[in-house]
Specification:
Layout lengths: L1 H9 L16 H8 L4 H15 L8 H12 L4 H14 L3 H8 L2 H7 L5 H16 L3
Helix pairs in contact: 2-3, 2-4, 3-5, 4-5, 5-8, 7-8
């Protein structure tokens, strides 16, 4: 998946989508690191992504990140899934991002039945946000 992810990341004109100030790495690099099988690297990437996309305002780079985050979410370890869900839950505050998030509904439904209670709760919160929206 890492190779195909890298190729898909290259197709996005990331320069057109700004991240929040103070971000050292570029969003595509953070997304690549999020896929790491090394949990500390993936966790660090999740915290960097939070800062880049959610700290203060939700950054424009959030929208093109959504399909990648959902794809990564479906194959990550529970600790990383929890962090990704935190990012995606923050995105639910922006109505224009909800339709993008809803495309991953099947992933959230599956995770709502996770053995990890925290992941299951956060995935259920995503589904609840969809139900409350008018989209």
């Amino acid at each position: 998946m890492a190779d195909s992810l890298w190729m898909k990341l290259r197709e996005v004109p990331w320069d057109q989508f700004k991240a929040n100030p103070g971000t050292d790495k570029k969003v595509p690099k953070m997304l690549e690191n999020l896929v790491s099988r090394k949990e500390p690297r993936a966790m660090k990437a999740s915290h960097e992504l939070w800062a880049a996309l959610c700290s203060g305002n939700i950054a424009p780079a959030a929208k093109p990140s959504i399909p990648f985050l959902i794809e990564i979410l479906s194959t990550s370890q529970p600790s990383v899934q929890s962090e990704i869900l935190d990012i995606l839950l923050k995105f639910t505050q922006e109505p224009q991002l909800l339709s993008e998030l809803k495309r991953g509904g099947y992933v959230f439904r599956k995770l709502s039945r996770s053995r990890d209670d925290v992941v299951a709760e956060k995935a259920t919160m995503m589904l609840t946000a969809f139900e409350k929206s008018d989209l």
